[in-house]
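dumping this here before i forget
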Amino acid sequence: MKYEIIRSKRRTIALQINSDATLTVRMPYGASMEYVERFIADKKPWIEKKQEKFRTLGLQHKPKQFSEDEEFIFAGKAYPLEIVPGKTARISLIPEGKLRISQKCLEAPKHYIEWFYRQYAKKYLSNRLAELARAFGYKYNSVKINSAKTRWGSCSVRGNINFSWRLVIMPPEMIDYVIVHELVHLEIKDHSRRFYARMSELMSDHKIREKWLKENSAMSNI
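structure:
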């Protein structure tokens, strides 16, 4: 296992996984290499897990090339891109499990694909919101789709619920978490203990889902 060593006046050894998945070992001046290597060997499972996480995040942050077979995610499912001839802009999810676009879309691929995500999100999120609202006995006024990058959803005092279209890139169980979160805000406007108690009643693992979303938010970039 490759790693960089930085010696200092510190008293203990510290392992640092960098954003490029490389390992930096910070160690005291007097620590022997034999001891350091044993320490790293003991921590190998933890190191490899963290490195894999950063490698995955690195791929997620990689700008889309809009090339053949590049994958786009809809409700947690990957759809390879298929580019077909056409002088008219067309884009759709086809039964073969692909995101098909015409060559015309390549003139402004990000624009067309984001537009398609918004249309998909409007239908998917509206339908799922209605289902969960009925299941849990909530009534809302309206639902709108926006392009927020740092906020999955919001709920106004008038009962209007907003979602970022980027939410539909996430797995269905994470989408449900955000929807339930906003539904509970219809009843409890703040993030008080009462709010989280209600969340626990409706979704016992909501804290796990929230943590997952925070750790994997980069998936929503296209």
